[in-house]
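Hey Z.,

So I finally got round to the cytidine-5'-monophosphate thing we talked about over coffee. Here's the setup:
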Amino acid sequence: MKKITIALDGFSSTGKSTLAKQIAKQLGYVYVDTGAMYRAIALYAMQNNWVNDKQLLKQDLIAALPNVQLKFVYNPTLGFAEMYLNGENVEKQIRSLEVSNQVSKIAAISEVRAKLVEQQQNMGKDKGIVMDGRDIGTVVFPDADLKLFMTADAATRAKRRYEELVAKGDDVAYDEVLKNVQERDLIDSTRTDSPLIKAEDAIAIDNSNLSKDEQYEQVMQLVQSLL
Ligand code: C5P
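And the result:
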């Protein structure tokens, strides 16, 4: 069967990764969560004290980029790939609110983006891939066969993210999560390099009032029409 490339972009906590995982599983495709890669670089910068609420030592991070190795390793028990930073499984750490609070500053650095985009394009060179992020349909795979752009109102998204964090045992406040979602969206959409925008040929999906199943059905119809 023909293999296609599916690019899924959109605002934070719009359920991109849940949908992307479902589609990839159904089609037997590779799923790549590019946010995990930016989060891992942010964690690396935090570990070295190059970024916090007060400072961003951009040049130190840029100089160290050749030493940063990112790898996805499939975990058969969980049914998805986990992020490894220089050989260490950092899957849990990169999902924390602390990392969420720093990641958009790191993702605005062009040198960071160039490194990750190259790795992402390599992963998708044989098609048969579902990739989610902010610039997949615009920069990473501008020729993707299917481009989706997901939105939902900020309160719905913050509620989803808050429930996810609480379910994992994180001690967070809803207002803090809402603030993070809004701040990240602002930085991501206004940065100079690869801002979060809908590709002209992307199909917009507002899932504020759609169930996960309804959304999956709609998207699978689009996918099937391309196979
Ligand atoms: O997808 P997730 O919310 O985990 O992404 C975390 C952050 O990584 C985003 O807020 C954005 O700053 C950055 N990102 C990006 N480009 C991508 C994926 C994520 O700039 N393709």
